[in-house]
Design brief:
Blueprint: H1 4-23, H2 27-39, H3 41-64, H4 66-72, H5 74-99, H6 117-129, H7 132-145, H8 152-176, H9 180-210
Helix pairs in contact: 1-7, 1-8, 2-3, 2-8, 2-9, 3-6, 3-7, 3-8, 5-9
């Protein structure tokens, strides 16, 4: 650890690259917004923890070099794209179905009682693990932060730090999207928001399915 100052610029650059990606709305951001608005803070936070755990997993896999093999072998990446595309299309179907339903007095009424935490956690985890963009982003992050010849602990710091940042940021989003003022807006515009989410997920899902 005495050499930390030698690798600190790369580590901080990797963190900065992750933050830029988190600020840019993507499938995880939009899905978390929908869950937090429609099913509340508790559901959103468990969904966020699933996303954060997925980030840790992909980071660890990238550090081990396995994700580079996924990129090298087209069949593996093709399978990931198909799985991710189908999952996003399923989310699009659910969002569009909600958009065309009569709006309930409580925006969460149509969802019934909140499900078990594992349900939301697994949804967030599945979304992140089937997102090819997340894998490619992690490859870029490790490439930026891990200099040739750097010791393993540098990569572990990058993975741990980026995973923690991803988790904290998504927990913040879950909290922000489940505040009363935001929920009040959602109740007035639930159909439009769900319709937008449905179109967004469908577009990204179709793009994944037909991309080469």
């Amino acid at each position: 650890m005495t050499e930390l100052h030698l690798y600190l610029p790369g580590i901080l650059l990797a963190y900065a690259a992750l933050l830029v990606g988190l600020i840019s709305p993507g499938p995880a951001f939009m899905a978390l917004m929908g869950v937090s608005l429609g099913e509340g803070r508790r559901a959103g936070r468990y969904f966020a923890l699933g996303i954060g755990s997925g980030s840790f997993c992909i980071g660890a896999i990238t550090l081990s070099g396995l994700s580079a093999l996924l990129v090298a072998y087209a069949d593996a990446m093709f399978a990931i794209r198909i799985a991710g595309g189908c999952y996003l299309l399923w989310m699009a179907f659910k969002a569009l179905r909600s958009a065309f339903r009569p709006a309930p007095a409580d925006a969460r009424a149509e969802n019934g009682p909140l499900r078990a935490p594992a349900h939301y956690f697994s949804r967030g985890l599945a979304l992140h693990l089937t997102n090819p963009k997340a894998i490619l982003t992690w490859i870029a992050i490790i490439s930026i932060g891990l200099q040739p010849g750097a010791p393993l602990w540098v990569g572990l710091i990058i993975v741990a730090g980026c995973g923690a940042i991803s988790t904290v940021i998504h927990l913040f989003y879950a909290t922000a999207f489940s505040t009363r003022p935001v929920i009040a807006v959602y109740r007035r515009m639930a159909r439009w928001i769900n319709g937008f989410l449905g179109v967004f997920f469908a577009a990204i899902g179709v793009k994944l399915l037909f991309s080469r």
